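Service request form, structural biology core

Requester: graduate student, group of Dr. S.
Request type: structure prediction, single chain
Budget code: on file
Notes: please return the result as structure tokens.

Sequence provided:
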Amino acid sequence: MLWDASEGDPLGIPSHYSNHLSHTYVDGDISLAPLLNRFEEYEFVEDYEFDEAVELLGKVRPEDWPNIEDIESVNLRDLLNPPSEDEVDFAEDNLGTAQTVEKGLAKVIESVLGEPVDNIRGGGGGYPSANNNFLQEGDGTFKGTFKQGEHKFDFEIFPDENGWTVTYRLSAESLDSLPPFHDEDKDEDDPTKKDYTRKSRNKGWR
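Core staff response, request fulfilled:
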């Protein structure tokens, strides 16, 4: 019925409808069926495979999946055809890997910054996913942004001869929100007059 009503496009199923499919079982398992309107690559599956995907998500262990609000999309072909044990690679489970990468990178950054961080995201603001190779570049560098308190930072974590190096710096928008430096609020001709024009600021990687 859902397949026919959506005319083969589950993205058209409204969230206020799909959210009614959420459920928590007495054994602690949950239903992720509300994710059906976040399916991707649905055009490559048959209607019976769509039913199978909804059934697979109908009862799952919550510890195997990230928070449902954090899941941007579910790849139907990956869901229906998980890799065998001898085909496991870095991105064997997109959603589980996204959560693992986010937590792992946060711990690495915290070990250097000394403060808790969150919201590990790609440069475009997306969650770690197969679409952005879980924030990893071709040379092995992890690159993205994180938040610490109210401030947003750009970061890079890259391998070198000594192991891994962590670098970070305030993002442009966080820099713009900071008050001017003590020597940026003076007018050269009149020391008593403040100059509120925006000055360029350069911050090196730490």
